[in-house]
Amino acid sequence: AALVLGIGLTTAVLLQRAERDTLSAQHERELNEAARAAGVLSRRVIALQRALQVVAAQLDKATLADDAKLAAFLQAKPVLRELFSNLFAASIDGQMRIFVDETGMRRPQLNVADRDYFRRTLGEGRPIVSDPVQSRVSGQPVIIFTYPLKDANGVYGVLSGSLRLTNRDLLNDLVDTQAGNSDV
Length: 184
Prior knowledge:
Elements: H1 2-58, H2 61-65, H3 67-75, H4 78-83, E1 86-91, E2 96-101, E3 104-106, H5 116-124, E4 128-129, E5 133-134, E6 141-151, E7 154-164, H6 172-179
Antiparallel strand pairs: 1-2, 1-7, 2-3, 4-6, 5-6, 6-7
């Protein structure tokens, strides 16, 4: 009886340790995956902000004010157009000067002056990544990346790009790297 009791207790202790080790290993894998996902998303956001920064540095006040020049300017930026679901430039009063998406370029009669991301970009004079908002053009949920257009006199407009949340544009890199991970 003592031998059976000893074997039972030893088995119970070993099972408890195995369960604890399994849970610990699973927790460690989940933490590593979360850290990897955060790193991928962070790199993607930084790359998108840098792309806007490079183009914003080239977009002067005169080009923003001239519809034909602005359209030609953005037409000459295929890489930027490919990175975002759509692009738009707005003057300091919030009037959308141009809107570019997969259907082409147009000038919708929209004003974004009431949008938090626009007000913050102007007020803080720095790039902003918006909370999810509903696009006034497509009606879809998007995240807006903004970059202030500046000269020696201050901010004169905002260059923005958005990613549709329904298309998982922001998560492309994350999904691609997980698809190749077959060791799970």
